Amino acid sequence: MDLVLRDTLSGMRRAVRGRPGRPLTLYVCGPTVYDVAHVGHARTYLFFDVARRFLESEGVRVRHVMNVTDFEDKLDARATQLGIPWRTLARREERSFFRDLAALNVLHPTVTPRATEYVRRMIATGQRLERSGRVRREGEEWVYTPPRRGARENFPTDRQLATHAVEEPGHPFPAQDGRSGEFMIWRLQRPPKPSWPSPWGRGIPGWHLECYAMAERSLGIPVDLHGGGPDLIYPHHYAENEVALELRGTPFARVFFHPAFVLTGGAKMAKSTGNLVSLRDALRDVGPNALRWYLLSTSHARRLAWDPEALHRAAADYARLRGTVRTWLGGTGGRASAATVRRLAAGVRHDLARGLATDRAFARIRAWAEDAARTGSAVAPRERAAALTEFRSIERRTGLELR
Fold first, then answer.
1. Is 290 a member of any domain?
2. How many distinct structural domains can be found in the chain?
3. H helices present in 145-220, as ranges
4. pTM, rounded to two decimals
5. Is-contact 292 400, C-beta < 8 A?
6. Each residue of 286-325: pLDDT tens digit?
7. Which candidate, 198, 233, 267, 205, places its Cα nearest to that of 38?
8. What domain range is 355 assigned to?
9. Is residue 377 assigned to a domain?
């Protein structure tokens, strides 16, 4: 069964498919490793985790790449504040990030390339863009100016920009002067800040070249499925897509997918503002399964307003659910058929296939458990093995422990 998602760029529903003879390629934008991961990050990565779990459960081989941005201005500032080298901070927070995702039972990516390992390829990408004649120097920066594109080729940079761009410190809405789509290729910079030699002088490449260089090397362009948080649509995914259109004549991805934000106090949860709930604290509070249950019980298309009381209600809901499943599977004298779980598993599979609807899938699981608790039923001993097989298939696709 195909996974069908609404492509963020076109707005159309598209099946996520690989190409014959190769794994399906998944590129998820990873962390800038200067501070702790928060539950907003977790929700984004959980949706991609379920997408990968679903695809692999359907027999699809997936090659999953998640980059690690281990040099960047915010990382420099944080390292200076702490009085440690930027590389030391980056390695420490990278380890912390993947430790927290593992604790949440998120599958580890196939490849986790670091930006520092791809600087030479980023420079080569910048040189290829320069040959287009649309790169110019402005002070200490080299800037690329894209050509006009059709409305369906890339994310908007005109008056429709507010549809995708997110205003926050460091990422203001650009001026409407015809230059809003420009992005940096190179900036002069000297040690002790990150710095590499290049044809333009010693400095650092623009952030937007990073994911293009990594995806081109590790997966090939276009990627079958690509995304991250919606704050990355503009300027980051816009710029990645522009590089692919210029250098390869193709979009960066065949399907773009951007699960909605987690909000705190009505604003996007973000490391840059300190407006966050750390993933580690949330895991300590309720554990990985209850947190997954809470974060995925709302549709990926809807923003989730973080609510500690709702989190604890979800944790209690999950505990009841798991208790019901255990009682149903382990009860004596039961007469229930495994067919009820077979229908449940088929429904969950359908919900996930049609738009990664974890909210509908979880509601379906909850309804099954409420019915089982109300009737006090248990599985017949001869049906237990078949029922266990169906529960395992649900667990494989959702990442939840149900037994």
1. no
2. 2
3. 208-218
4. 0.95
5. yes
6. 999 999 999 999 999 999 999 999 999 999 999 999 999 9
7. 267
8. 307-398
9. yes
